[in-house]
Amino acid sequence: MEHCFPKKKSAITFKSCFNKGWVNCFFIYAGQLLSHPEETNRNMVQICRVQSWFVGVTPLLIFATVLHQGFATVAPPTPAPHKEPGRPERGYYNVTNHNGTICLMAYMGLQLNISYNSTSQKKVVQDVMNLQPNLTKHSGLCDSDIASLNLTVDAVKTNLTFVFTMNSTSNKYHLSEVTVSAAWPEMKEPVSVHNSSLDYLRGTVGYSYFCRDEQTLNVAQNLSINTFQLQVQPFAVKGDQFGAAEECQLDEDDMLIPIVVGAALAGLVVIVLLAYLIGRKRSHAGYQSI
Questions:
Q1: For the chain, is the Cβ count within 10 Å smaller at the N or the C terminus?
Q2: Helix H or strand E segment including 107
Q3: Cα(219)–Cα(205) distance, rounded to whole angstroms?
Q4: 101-123 pLDDT, tens per residue?
Q5: Domain coordinates of the chain in residue numbers?
Q6: Are 190 and 158 in contact (CB under 8 A)?
Q7: From residue 14, how far is each of 37, 44, 51, 100 by CA, in Å?
Q8: Could you name the CATH architecture of 91-252?
Q9: Phi and psi at residue 213, to the nearest 5°
């Protein structure tokens, strides 16, 4: 406290007292006001100016701090990481004609790949969805040369229609048309795709088309369908059973690779054996000449 007073008997200075703190400075000035009123009043004016400056600046500092905190903490929501749904479950679907007999059979796992405008991410994203057989309704129609299978999943507002066409001249059938519509919650607008110029799943009438491997059916630029362990027969179904299966090209290629590898290994073994026999014969001839 004594350092707040000057050595001469005059009023204390504002700077020396202010360094002691507001409370100490108040009592010091109160004591000095009686002995040096004029000097003390001038110093009190300095204190009031400083107080006014703090009163004016403090709200601005608080406002700036709150504004900075607001900008620093507000960030766009981070979308959840995309998870692949895995391999879809196989489902059995059939279509009956007007007399109640089955005219189309299908046993397959289906997976949709759709690109759409996302409402949360505000950009085009690609999503994958498996069709769950227990949530999928099936229906369809059969005619002499056209058979259709319609699959509907009400839970996700998704509808698929497969149309098979038969050529009576060649006695062949193929998947000629696919229609897909989807209105998922994340979609900015529903997706609707139709393609009537396809040529997939070719088979012979009376036989079923079977593909064990995963197969991709490209329907449009923003939509494709993956099939898993697909077996389908759209015409000439007898006894509610699939006809003899015709393997798809993918399965035939898978069978061809082991055959080629096995033949190559067998040829290598023959070459090594011949080389061994020739070498042994030459060494035996050398012993006889000696």
A1: C
A2: strand 102-117
A3: 24
A4: 999 999 999 999 999 999 999 99
A5: 2-73, 91-252
A6: no
A7: 14, 8, 13, 107
A8: Beta Barrel (2.40)
A9: -75, 165
